[in-house]
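Narrative of activities, Objective 1.

The group set out to show that a structural description can be obtained from nothing but a protein's sequence at a throughput compatible with the screening campaign. Below is one input-output pair from the validation batch, recorded exactly as produced.
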Amino acid sequence: MSDHVVATLHDRVRAAGERLVAAGLAEQHATIDAEVLARLALGWDRAEYLARRSDAPPLGFQSAYEPLVERRARREPVAQIAGYREFWNRDFEVSRDVLTPRPETELIVEEALAIHASATGEASMAAPPSLRAAKPWRLVDVGTGSGCLAVTLALELSGVDVLATEISERALAVAQRNAIRLGAADRVRFVCTSLLAGVAPGIDMIVSNPPYVPAAYRSGLSSEVRDYEPAEAVFGGPDGFELIRTLLQQSAALLVPWGWLLMEFGAGQDDQVGAIVAEYPPLAVEAIRDDLQGIPRMAVIRRVGS
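Output recorded for this entry:
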């Protein structure tokens, strides 16, 4: 489109949004994505963009912007184009080697912080002795991916020994870079292993966003997920619970009495989660947390008894 037709920065961003709609994106998402990519090309924050969007595009803008829009038109996720995604007010590096952090995964952080505050505060004297703050808590993030849970909890909690496990060496490298860049390199230990294989017992809390999408759902997923995120982080076998069953079995053996497992699951899977957890005593579902849309997405599971 020529400069005679598109006179301002806003006009060019609007034209890019229309192009993304033509490529199949919903109009609302296309509008947001076009602006985000423009700010990425410009190196501006949103305040600067809003203040200057009525100006003529800076020199070199279009040559920087066009390839980004083209990548999004091919349905590459914005987070991978940008190379980062915000999680708990921190920017985490992402790539095709890791699952992009989702807002609903922050439910795990919220619950972990609340549980830790209750168990280690003044009210902790009513808790079982094994959960009092006489020793550092052992917290394990299973299938850490980008490291968003392990790094966030290591930075938000004090007196916690954080271990992050991941079967993919490429994903583990991303997580380690995030830990270094965000100042948690000395607070998180990383191990390349499958789920909790080789981890010593006596864990106070396990957190995990495991693969839970049934393999048969692959064709129905958006191309952003199906084509750009690692299959091993998305698909959980024929019914979605293949790895979750192993995680539950391991957790039942490795958690301290009254320890917690905080686990994300897919929309519509809450009844199945309850039924499957019941197969692995002494684990029991203590609560189910809903996301911001009111959809059940996270289970608070506890190892009951001594």
